[in-house]
Amino acid sequence: MIIDCHGHYTTSPRPHEGWRQQQIEAHAAGKPAPPRPTMTDDEIRETIEGGQLKVQRERGTDLTIFSPRAAGMGHHLGDATTSEAWAAACNELICRVCSLFPKNFVGVAMLPQSAGASPRNCLAEIDRCVNQYGFVGVNLNPDPSGGHWRDPPLSDRYWYPVYEKMVEHAIPAMVHVSASCNPTHHTTGSHYLNGDTAGFNQLMNSSVFKDFPTIKFIIPHGGGGVPYHWGRYRGLAQDAKLGLLSELMLNNVFFDTCVYHLPGQELLAKVIPVDNILFASEMIGAVRGVDPETGHHYDDTKRYIDQLPLSAADKGKIFEGNARRVYARLSAVIAKQSATAV
Amino acid sequence: MIIDCHGHYTTSPRPHEGWRQQQIEAHAAGKPAPPRPTMTDDEIRETIEGGQLKVQRERGTDLTIFSPRAAGMGHHLGDATTSEAWAAACNELICRVCSLFPKNFVGVAMLPQSAGASPRNCLAEIDRCVNQYGFVGVNLNPDPSGGHWRDPPLSDRYWYPVYEKMVEHAIPAMVHVSASCNPTHHTTGSHYLNGDTAGFNQLMNSSVFKDFPTIKFIIPHGGGGVPYHWGRYRGLAQDAKLGLLSELMLNNVFFDTCVYHLPGQELLAKVIPVDNILFASEMIGAVRGVDPETGHHYDDTKRYIDQLPLSAADKGKIFEGNARRVYARLSAVIAKQSATAV
User: Fold this and answer.
1) How far is CA A74 from CA A12, A82, A175, B57, in A?
2) Are A111 and A126 within 8 A, CB to CB?
3) What is the predicted pLDDT for the residue at A341?
């Protein structure tokens, strides 16, 4: 089984994104948001069958761990109330996708974060997504201010209520920023990667893994700049007397394979232990074109993994085993959703 | 000849850094700064002979392109006036090092940037450093606010006065942030690398190379996260219809080799054309320890280049030729300084 741990609903129905715009405009005007739009199952089916499901079939992957569009989370827009309503709408839509395609998608929640607002606001939505929707993880935005970095780092106890909830439910968090509203940072060209690098480094300089020994984080986009600079991080940890970086981080931190060329994948697999790498593509995402050097889509990351000099057992870990381990609820959810499939 | 294009005066005499502290305290108290301390040639010699010169000899490098301590630039501290005085003091000290060790050090200027202040403030100092001190380049901080990213991106015409001056003098800029005063970003653990990645991406999404076809930038620390994500950047450029990334960037942008493990160096040399790679170590810098996996200093980057499967001619470009080309004034300054040497 090939599990892609990083997919967003980038093709969601237009009325959904349209409502978000109305909601933010209403908030700015001091008015209540309009009622949420009705979307039929057929409307949702259409966006998936021509999008993520089609790509799964073309590329030979089986299951996508699926969450709301990351750039669309927009935690810097509106306030805590608009974020709460928007996260609820987005997560409900993911739940509907998983119900309509139970063998192909398992849900991960976006959180109702809001710049400057307590992460405690996220707890009820996490409970709902895990208990009612069967979601297996959350996306945690380390910069709800959208490129201004105005909230505390992930090392701060500010975030501990979310960490406690993650441990309670045995769900991991993918550290994933949303859109940048700072003109110095292009969303997919620097903010995403820098959010990954900063998130890793914040956790590295923290007591989070001492305080939550079983907690798990996925650093997406191949870990931002971290694996390329693994020697730098080993040295920084050593100079700061934090111990061996591998012992400090690798029980709790995992990297996905959203790296869009073979040399980058080779580096990742050379530097990071195979037990800490999870297959992912973020398909229909940041980079949608075909690489003229290969004739294949940049984000068809399965092709790169297929070419790596790893044993079948190791590739099995990357493609399936590690995801089942890191997303501790995943195997049970797969079994349950498969049972509901036609 | 082996030229290290990225060294900072991290071992500068204590009175120099002490004066900076007094200057900032005086500014905060609304008082004039005290007079600058007197430092003897012997005091300066001592910091170099036991520091950078010793390491040059141990590692077999010949010349360091040398600039003030990057984290010490502190463009977020004080105001435009304090930055002007501090940059003058720092650059003067670099000039003295180059005069005392003319065969071993060539100068690069820090700029009197200040958060929110026009880059025009830098022009007189650039003139002075090039014309009077014989410096061959500048360090340009894309985030004078120190991790808050409050100034415009490098794509903005805000920076054009500096670019015009760079072209006038035929000097490149290394895109190098200073210390982070934002608790979300550790200075050497994420702000440096993220500044590199953001700087590259800002230039990529700009008209700077159309407007200044001969301008040159060095992205330090191996280019931040960029080479590891070269496929992503090729794809982003393609999706945005910017053309081939290599044609868009590689006449004007160069990467140094401050990557502290062999797999990272292998990736860099595999992905980036050899003409765009400049040898550098940033020695006595961010990472000072010995790598237990190799028994050598993490930042002894010459050892990694020595191990790369490149021809002697290609290694010659990385170690010397590219630096002489990118720093267009370098060969003349080397000849002039050598003539003054005992």
Assistant:
1) 16, 10, 15, 53
2) yes
3) 82
Distance (Å, whole) CA B256 – CA B65: 12
Measured between CB atoms, does B157 come within 8 Å of chain A? Answer: no
Q: Which of B82, B85, B83, B133 is nearest to B109 (CA)?
A: B133
CA–CA gap between residue A249 and residue A228 (Å, rounded): 16
Decide if A116 touches B, using CB distance below 8 A.
no
What are the angstrom distances between the C-alpha of B20 and each of B33, B66, B84, B146, B221?
Answer: 9, 20, 12, 17, 26
Least CB–CB distance from B225: residue in A228, A230, A238: A228
Q: Chain-centre distance of CA A316, in angstroms?
A: 21
DSSP B221: G
Task: In whole angstroms, give the CA distance from residue A307 to residue A301.
Answer: 10
Tokens found for residue B53: 């010169």
| Whole-complex ipTM | 0.98
Kindly tell me if the per-residue pLDDT of A286 is higher than 80: yes
Residues B273 and B250: their CA atoms lie apart, in Å, by 8
Of residues B147, B197, B238, nearest to A225 (C-beta)? B197
Whether A76 and A145 have beta carbons less than 8 Å apart is answered as: yes
- Please tell me if residue B62 touches chain A, with a CB cutoff of 8 Å: no
Answer yes or no: is pLDDT of A187 > 80.
yes
Give the number of beta-carbon pairs within 8 Å between A and B: 201
* A192: helix, strand or coil: helix
Q: Is B80 helix (H, G, I), strand (E, B) or coil?
A: helix
In B, which residues are within 8 Å of A299 by CB distance?
Answer: 235
CA of B321: how far to CAs of B65, B200, B251, B267, B313, in Å? Answer: 14, 23, 15, 21, 9
What whole-number distance in Å separates Cα of residue A182 and Cα of residue B153? 9
Q: What is the pLDDT of residue B341?
A: 81
- Give me the pLDDT at residue B312, please: 98
Q: What are phi and psi of A238, to 5 degrees?
A: -65, -50
In angstroms, rounded to a whole number, what is the distance separating the alpha carbons of residues B276 and B208?
18
pLDDT in tens, A77-110: 999 999 999 999 999 999 999 999 999 999 999 9
Contact (CB<8Å) A236/B286: yes
- Does B236 contact A147 at a Cβ distance shorter than 8 Å? no
- Edge-to-edge strand list for the sheet holding B173-175: B109-110, B138-140, B173-175, B217-219, B253-256, B277-278
User: Which residues in chain B show pLDDT less than 70?
Assistant: 342
* Spatial distance between the Cα atoms of B136 and B329, rounded to a whole number of angstroms: 6
Interface of A with B in 218-277 (CB under 8 A): 221-222, 224-225, 227-236, 238-239, 259-264, 266-267, 270-271
